[in-house]
Automatic annotation (TrEMBL):
InterPro entries registered for this protein in UniProt: Aminotrans_3 (IPR005814), PyrdxlP-dep_Trfase (IPR015424), PyrdxlP-dep_Trfase_major (IPR015421), PyrdxlP-dep_Trfase_small (IPR015422)
Pfam families per UniProt: Aminotran_3
Keywords attached to this entry: Aminotransferase, Pyridoxal phosphate, Transferase
Protein name (record): Aminotransferase
Molecular function as annotated in GO: pyridoxal phosphate binding; transaminase activity
Organism of origin: Tepidimonas fonticaldi
Family under the similarity heading: Belongs to the class-III pyridoxal-phosphate-dependent aminotransferase family.
Amino acid sequence: MPSPSAPVSAERLAALQAAERERFLAEHPRSRVLAERSAAHYLFGVPLHWMRDWPNPVTLFVRSAHGAELTCADGHGYADFCLGDTGAMFGHSPAPVARAIAEQAAHGLTCMLPTEAAAGVGERLAQCFGLPFWQLALSASDANRFVLRWARAVTGRPQLLVFDGCYHGAVDDTLVDRDPATGSTVRRPSVLGAVHDHPDFTRVIPFNDLTALERALADGQVAALLAEPALTNFGLVPPEPGFWPAAQALCRRYGTLLVLDETHTLSSGVGGHARAHGLAPDVWVAGKAVAGGVPCALYGVTADLAARMQAVKQAAPEGHSGIGTTLTANALAMAALDAALQHLHTPASYAAMNRVADALEAGLTERLRARALPWTVTRLGARLELQFMPETPRNADDVRRHAQPALEASLHLFLLNRGVLLTPFHGMMLCSPATSPAHVDRLLNAFDDWLAALGL
């Protein structure tokens, strides 16, 4: 057996990946046919080009999804630890949400008016997430865009501050990078069609760096710090102890609004990471999973900020504010959100999620220790990541230094061929209330086989 501290050879990885690609093609003839048909009508062969962000040689087409399992077009079943990249965090088609959608569909889908359920939903939002005033959107991208307009309007400040490696959806202001040599904000090369010079209005600093945070805020030009409580899309990078209370205090000192985007960290506990850890943001944002997977997002604000928002809107001329879309808070989304708040955002849901996450974390950690592998399992609530580095990263630069995309791609395809689906980037895994010990065992057994195939 090779030394487990030594990297797996590129040749061995390439040979294993080639064999797994052939296996996938042989076992998925129906997906191959659907991919060929779709290529004639969809750019890149899929309705959204992100659907090709997987290491399999052709797209996996889905027949059905229930609980924590998928069935593909070829009839193979998968234990799903991707869960729609958090959209299905409570499981696919949770029964209370499915019933609410079916019932509402018979009574209207969209009216551009509030439904009778709206008052109760507002009360439940305040109770669950701890902020008194709310607005809805169709996606977290929309919600973040709208929040940034509000933040700049009420503060009169032009600048946005984000952390290096953050992800806040398709919000142009946040699709920028930090130059590690100079610390300056630069254009992200992969972003298509950018015409505005967002680096002029967005500042980027390292995560977990309070000195850099104070330096960025000190001139009084930053309207808002828009942040995930933990980086989740650039590898899982949790906050260091004491970071967020200190960061919150700095925002207050310099008059900068603190906006926490919990689209991914909602899995931390009932009410999200902020509620679980006693944080008090000015604005709280969530999408994807908040209504059980139906397109819906929301943002809540403090009473003080709500008064400022209403004042600035009333002082503006009549006309389009640039905030909102016609389908926002449609009847179908409101019905799903109402059901989710009553039946999914509960201590029982999170207890079930955490039980299986405990087992998965223990199983992965045991295997790494038994082989003395210099890898890490990082945990945040029901979300885990297997990281090919000796310790949990502190910031995005730590992730960059240890990046092993070929190893990640090998893990993903190998597990997929054995009935386990991971999120298509990094080694991210999410547990739902429907995830069972049997699903965890399937993942751990496939992981054992992968390690053996690598000679570890």
